Amino acid sequence: MKPDRLRRYIDLHAWLGMVSGLALFVAFFAGAINVFHHELHHWQEPYHGEEAVPPGGMDRLLTLVTNQHPDARERLFLLPDEHDPGVMWFESGEEGGEWLTAHASDFNEAGVREEQPRSGLADFINQLHYQLAIPSGGLPVNIGMTLMGLISVIYGAALFSGLIIHWSKIRKEFFALKHEGNLRRYWKNLHNVIGVISFPFHLIMSVTGAAMGMFTVVAILLGVLVFGPQLRAVIEEETAVWPAVESQDESVAMAPMADYLSAARHELPDMRIDWVEIRGYGDAAGWLDVAGSLPGYIGHHVHVVLDPTMAPLKVIEPGARSFNFDALSPVYALHFGDYGGLGVKLLYFAMGLLGSLLFVSGNILWCERRSDRIGPGRSSAFLLRLTLGLCFGVVIGIAFSFLASKVLPHTPWAALVATAERVVFAAILLVLTVWSLRASPLRFSGLMTRLAPLTYLAVPAVQIGLEGSHAWREPDNLLINLVLLAVAGSLWVVRRQFRKRVRQAEPHPLWVGKVSQEHPKHLTETEIDNAASLPD
Predict the structure, then answer these.
(1) Mean of pLDDT over the chain
(2) Buried b / exposed e across 460-470, counting CB within 10 Å, b at 16+?
């Protein structure tokens, strides 16, 4: 390739990486934890000792909710759970309405709802991953999700430009992970090796992220510019498992929910049931969609549609579904890594953490390289400090959200737990970002790399202190706590490598807060240790 063309690809790769890097760090770090979304839902529930199973289970819950909230009869989502099943429905109102949730434990023996305070940690981590926790504001397009879809497109372009840059020398760089006295070269090679090894994973994330994030925007544009208003009806028809209910005002007695689940398993014996969508509850024209997974397939999502008498209306499974479901099921499965067992989840978790390191190292290397080429400037210094502040703010903020999720349910402020998880994250992110813009990057990083592992070690310790053996006796709790310990270990390795680099190589002027071309002197070990403790 001609040098001038290669230079254009290098510049394209760098700028695309800068534009999308910080948002992708948030998505990857939160996504690494979100791989265990199902287990986190169990971990976040407070434990106050053995509690009795709510009487009546799913059937009593459905009866109470549909009687007290008529809107729930039109469309209702049920989350089957032996201990505490939950339901979700859309409640209409003057300002458009909102989605509401209820659990069996929310209702007392008299059937009066006494809503219990519940953590929203798992949903918050999920929202951080796919929409940066940006609220939609009631708009027809989810702003955060659309933004991440656009960033995924930019991310894909950066991947391909990076592959073009390194393709001719990939073999040489793959085995060049040694510093030979030049630690900056070592970190550059490490960045390249991580990118090469994880390229297939990143390609999957970019394609599936763009497909999910941009779907609504593409549909709106096609509807406005090409197909017209009929496109919406076509999309609804193709994405629905069964046509909407056309009520004849004929009521019917619903069978026990356990019977519907058994009827679904009769159609697909190996099915793992995840949720049930009920349309027209108590209406003879209504139907139920028992949705779940079928092991052994990447596109593992299955649906068994039943009428109120438990007669099967439609079975959607691998080899017997429309092109739409055949296309979308693998997209979701490949993105979230839920098509395999624990081994696949652990692989996605490791790749998510490595991806986070890739984006941080890319920004840092670009800032240093740009400073070397054109001299230290305010833009490079600002981007370096912003990268450090935002990344450490996200990492430590998430840890404090975990702490809030465990501590608040055991205090008089238990009702504020879901709000506190978000507020404490936003506060820490804001404080650390502002602090990083004013502090010396070297001292700030030294302190943060010391603090970050401790916050993730503190979460399992706090849970053990508050809930005792429940922290490791329950498999989901044990898994999440081991994941948090793995994050703490990864952050400790980052701290060790950071200290090693500062100890063995002269720090760049950007790291010591100098905007000049004069390089600072070599730091002693005492100065390195003091960098994390002395005031700026």
Answers:
(1) 84
(2) bebbeebbeeb
